[in-house]
Amino acid sequence: MNFGNQTPTIVVLKEGTDTSQGRGQIISNINACIAVQEALKPTLGPLGSDILIVTGNQKTTISNDGATILKLLDVVHPAAKTLVDISRAQDAEVGDGTTSVTILAGELMKEAKPFLEEGISSHIIMKGYRKAVSLAVAKIEELAVDIDISQEGGRELLERCAKTAMTSKLIYKNADFFVKMCVDAVLSLDRDELDDKMIGIKKIPGGAMEESMFVNGVAFKKTFSYAGFEQQPKKFRNPKILSLNVELELKAEKDNAEVRVEHVEDYQAIVDAEWQLILDKLEQIEKTGANIVLSKLPIGDLATQFFADRNIFCAGRVSSDDLNRVILAVGGAIQSTTTDIKPQHLGTCEVFEEMQIGSERYNLFQGCPKAKTCTLLLRGGAEQVIAEVERSLHDAIMIVKRALQNKLIVAGGGATEMEISKHLRDYSKTIAGKQQLIINAFAKALEVIPRQLCENAGLDAIEILNRLRMAHSKGEKWYGVDFEIESIGDNFAKFVWEPALVKINELNSATEATNLILSVDETITNKESSPANAGMAPPQGRGRGMPMQ
């Protein structure tokens, strides 16, 4: 038999593995990313619409925040997931610009598509994009204006940045009220660390948005309480605060505990011993001079009444998150025993009070000496509204934080994008070859931001973009879309400001994501592995009547 002329089949990949490769694969990936971009486009800008998302477990979310929407859209396409990742990264790094970064990345891919279809290598496009983004970032750094926040009007500058971050959000109508709250919140933090986790946000349904409160300290919901709680004082000035991890309650006996006693007096002695144990603890707490006792564990009715008689406020079952923030704010330390508590273990604050907010009662610690922390109490008609207010405030707080750290700002409303676009167009005319076309395509892609802002506002995008190009060619570097007069205007003079970091991060992330998609020209999808024993015959039973082998 002659096998000489037969080529053996080489199987490298498991059967059922899906492979697709080549230029068609890149274009297919780009189309998937453009589909994600299309979903987000209507939400951009002050007149962008919100999206209502219903997840699998019927939970509804109304949002305008790019990162939130993409997180909830269950994107399964492997290439389109990169857009979800860059918007999350933008949210974590800068806080704002999550929609812009996704739209920009989608547009850069859209601009690259015709070149790929004409047969230009994806590496040439990537090289051109890298050159363009380095020029763009250099131009932003050249344009950016340094603002000195330590001066008199420093607070006003931060408020303007926060207001720009809020323009596209649900709370825009109440921006003046929330802007003050955001800036207060960030300025209450430690200047060196600026840890935004120290800003607690509590959501209380009911009431109007304007009834939201800023607490310069810590606030938490009233804990479960026993009889005698209402006799306790609810307001103190400069109290001593003791934080415990101790249960102050009479222990219930185990179900099957058996105690044999001969006389009634013996039984009384056991009961008295139990009472004496808890009373000793309570007296030790009283001797510390504390006015407020907080504990992670329950404080029972005996202890509650004991404290009420001695004008001490107590709260048991405080969540560890809240208790840790109280400790950081008022000082002291959590004690796991009531013996040997020294004065340095107690904290203090200027005012403590319990007050009614909506249908809930809240414990507020204000004017905390150690405090580099604060709490925002948010109100609103529906839970979805409060959740969106919280997301909007998170963006604004992050922007104020970045402005404090970086101090460089640029104008928003599409002004910066148009100026960079003009700069890149001018540069592309000075070079020859394919790179000229690619840098020009990058410049064209940047115009998607002002164009989409106009489309969402119902303005004539073509006319306004032409006017913007003309204004920028005459040297009006801060001209962008002005929604108040439905035309173009100097956005820097109108105080539509954003930290330069937002734009730099946006351009870098969008370009990196685009280059990542362009560099992938093959996808291998492994079929889900079946369980180890699937497909095997069941072991043969050796029942009655089967001979032994």
Q: Could you walk me through the main structural features you see in this protein, from its secondary elements to its overall organization?
A:
It contains 16 helices and 21 strands. The protein has 549 residues and is of the alpha+beta class. The strands form seven sheets. Strands 9, 10, 11, 12 and 13 form a five-stranded mixed β-sheet that branches. Strand 9, helix 8 and strand 10 form a beta-alpha-beta unit. Helix 4 runs parallel beside helix 16, helix 5 crosses helix 13 and helix 6 packs across helix 7. The longest helix is centred in the middle third of the chain and has 24 residues. The radius of gyration is 32 Å and the shape is elongated. The mean pLDDT is 82. This is T-complex protein 1 subunit eta. GO terms for molecular function: ATP binding; ATP hydrolysis activity; ATP-dependent protein folding chaperone; unfolded protein binding. Belongs to the TCP-1 chaperonin family.
Structural class: alpha+beta
Radius of gyration: 32 Å
Number of helices, where a helix is a run of at least 4 consecutive DSSP H or I residues: 16
Poorly predicted ranges: none
The helicity comes to 40-55%
N-to-C span: 40 Å
Shape: elongated
Largest sheet: 5 strands, mixed
Return the average pLDDT rounded to an integer.
Answer: 82
Provide the β-strand percentage band.
15-25%
The tally of strands reads: 21
